């Protein structure tokens, strides 16, 4: 299989990731195309020290960051607030009046989270959990954790206050934890 064919296999995942970050299908397609072109142009420099997918997504990550910085665009807040309110309602049911975990909703300890990271199926569940988060919440989480942007840059890009950004990140982590507990750690994972 040629390098171009190998790279093309990752295109659907790359598009999904880029669209979530840029909130624009056309812009997502553009940065993926730029990333693929850059990968093909630099394939001779790929030393194989990491997986091909990791290398491709690193290139894509840089293209997305460049696009976000270049566009300096903002998102219509009103269209995304509804999703955050729905997540608030879900998460509110997990805590008591003093904002502590209700005993029946307290997360169970995860058996071996490090071993789970090595399993392909875990990452499929993780991607699904990201998809069920409200779009803005997932976007802020991915900007911070996947793209590695600092809080001040996220805030400037999305017109958020620092405290609001931290609240969104907290909601994202709580939502992901709940989803992963129910979808992976709470059930017996299939062996891969």
UniProtKB/TrEMBL annotation:
Keyword set, alphabetical order: DNA-binding, Sigma factor, Transcription, Transcription regulation
InterPro entries linked to this entry: RNA_pol_sigma-24-rel, RNA_pol_sigma-70-like, RNA_pol_sigma-70_dom, RNA_pol_sigma70_r2, RNA_pol_sigma70_r4_t2, RNA_pol_sigma_r2, RNA_pol_sigma_r3/r4-like, WH-like_DNA-bd_sf
Boundaries of every RNA polymerase sigma-70 region domain copy: 6-74
RNA polymerase sigma factor 70 region 4 type domain span: 126-174
Transmembrane residue ranges: none
Source organism, top-level taxon: Bacteria
Pfam families recorded: Sigma70_r2, Sigma70_r4_2
Gene3D superfamilies: 1.10.1740.10, Winged helix-like DNA-binding domain superfamily/Winged helix DNA-binding domain
Sequence similarity: Belongs to the sigma-70 factor family. ECF subfamily.
Name of the protein in its database record: RNA polymerase sigma factor
Species assigned in the record: Zoogloea oryzae
Lineage: Bacteria, Pseudomonadati, Pseudomonadota, Betaproteobacteria, Rhodocyclales
